[in-house]
Amino acid sequence: MNLAYRDIRHNLGRFLLTCFGLSLLLGVVLSMIGIYRGLVEDALTLVRTPVVDVWVVESGTRGPFAESSRIPGDTREAIARLQGVSAAGSVTYQSVETLYGAKKLRLYVAGYEPGRPGGPDRISTGRPIGRSHYEMVADKRTGLSLGSRVELGRDTFIVVGMTDDQVSSGGDPVIYITLKDSQQLQFELAPPAARREIARGTGPGDTDTINAVVARVSPNVSPESVAEAARRWKHLAAMSQAEQELILTRSVVERARKQIGLFTALLLIVSAVIIALILYTMTMDKLREIATLKLIGAPDRTIVGLILQQALAMGTIGFGFGALLITTIKDYFPRRVVLQPEDGLALAAAVILVCVLSSALGVRLALKVDPATALGS
Amino acid sequence: MDQSVGGKPLVHVRNVSKHFGDGETRVDALRDVSLEVHPGEVVALLGPSGSGKTTFLNVIGCIVEPSTGWVSLDGEIVYDDGHWLRSDLRKLRLEKVGFIFQFHNLLPFLNSTDNVAVVLSLAGYDTAESKRRAIELLDYLEVGHRKDAMPANLSGGEAQRVAIARALANRPRIILADEPTAALDSQRAGIVMDLLRKVAVEQEAAILAVTHDEKIFDRFDRIFHLRDGRLDDQNT
């Protein structure tokens, strides 16, 4: 006869309500883990999208994501001629804010040379950029659709293709435009400033500047050797793809990662305390029944089993509800929530462990109950 | 005072004392108490509040350890010379002692059948056999028609009969009852006492009840009084 099951069935509404409360808490824990994963995933998406092996940036910087980097536009030609480089492309990155209808739109603009590395790796709908100017490929998270027209700087761009899950480390959705357009957007002076420069006799300035050059290397060639060769130019720095990813995860999102990690750990501790209190209260409510069970001869293992089984049932149901809830609503979060099976399993294991440890308080209380308390009142 | 009616006593207590605390805070709950209860006997234990009745019941039920004395239950010496002779006292209770409480103390999450069957489950019976025997007992105590009812839906008399069925489930030969009729009216109290008498006779059990209920005094074979931890008796 399973006493834990019978007790749960008898107080089903109360038990489910408790499980629901716990599920909300565990759902928050799971979502924090998902947000943490999403943060890292988002940070790496942009750097992985060009599918390249080497990043060449301004000397003394760790650009183009961790620090600002500006190098001459002809650097790409120099890099492309290095031994072992199979393809190279110039890229620019910048954040812009514009209006789409009445809605404010924050975008991360990637400029690239169509036909060279640096552009989106996959277009989900529509087509890649086919014209030299005023076309863009936008991520679905922008809320734009094919044919949408968006004003960037002094020009209007039309959306010709869409991508999925392309966001910057800050969470802004990415749009891709041609390098020329992005250079104009980033480096071309506004008319009043340009007029002032002309009046000074310096001209409006050269816009053929880029943030980085990305390069693919041939098979059997070490990216490190290409990076080493690029570093011989004193105005350039170079790093492999792995180094660039490390900079992003260990530098750009490190604080946010630690913050979320710490918050997740705190939430787990809070969950443990709450589970312990719930189990303690549930045991307190059953002291008379436990005393009666002891009096009629129930061994300790029956009483421990009653508490432990209820703790595990509560943890399992709470976790199940929580996981279901977060899986259902994760797409409505403003930032990506990445739920990985191994994270879910790890949290489930942690919840089970927490339940077992937390039930120790209740078990201790139950084992101390004097069977005589069942008599005489 | 040692009382014998005949035959081998099921409850045999000799010179049991129990004190709580020491020095100035010492309280003597039981002083040199001796008692025998024989098969088929229904015995009452009376006394004012604080006289040691519940302590005495707890000593016989192996819940409270005496300070000195000797206790034998169903022919087995369980306490002697300042210590228990068995380590598994709960198993001992499960095998030899049935308890009936003032407020029945049924497990609120089990129906009548399962409240009785749980004792049999603990004793190692399989589920089907436990339930079969539980239903038999409920029928025997004329509460079989309420076998599926939850305790909250039972009347006081019905709940007490289910509690008696639970106490009898494992066929214990010693039944300890703490105010078994206190929560019942005189008619239902009479029915419960008749049932206990029936059990004592048919199962050759010894029944020891703590009670203040004067309306059932005539249902006992013997009545003992505890005063300041000392036992004296009057036969009825």
From TrEMBL, chain A:
**Name of this chain's protein:** ABC transporter permease
Can you give the residue ranges of the MacB-like periplasmic core domain? Answer: 16-231
Q: Where in the cell is it found?
A: Cell membrane
Q: Which UniProt keywords apply?
A: Cell membrane, Membrane, Transmembrane, Transmembrane helix, Transport
- How does the protein's chain sit in the membrane according to the entry? Multi-pass membrane protein
Where does the ABC3 transporter permease C-terminal domain lie? 262-371
A Pfam family annotated for this chain is MacB_PCD
What InterPro entries is this protein classified in?
ABC-4/HrtB_transporter, ABC3_permease_C, MacB_PCD
Q: Does the keyword DNA repair apply?
A: no
Top-rank lineage group of the source organism: Bacteria
Q: Which residues cross the membrane?
A: 12-36, 260-282, 303-326, 346-367
From TrEMBL, chain B:
Keywords (A to Z) from UniProt: ATP-binding, Nucleotide-binding, Transport
Q: Which InterPro entries does the record cross-reference, listed alphabetically? A: AAA+_ATPase (IPR003593), ABC_transporter-like_ATP-bd (IPR003439), ABC_transporter-like_CS (IPR017871), ABC_transpr_LolD-like (IPR015854), MacB-like_ATP-bd (IPR017911), P-loop_NTPase (IPR027417)
Q: CDD domains, from UniProt? A: ABC_MJ0796_LolCDE_FtsE
Transport recorded as keyword = yes
Q: What does the record give under GO molecular function?
A: ATP binding
The cross-references to SMART domains, in alphabetical order and at most eight, read: AAA
| Annotated ranges, domain ABC transporter | 11-236
Q: What is this protein called?
A: ABC transporter ATP-binding protein
Please give the organism: Iodidimonas muriae
The lineage, from the top, is: Bacteria, Pseudomonadati, Pseudomonadota, Alphaproteobacteria, Iodidimonadales
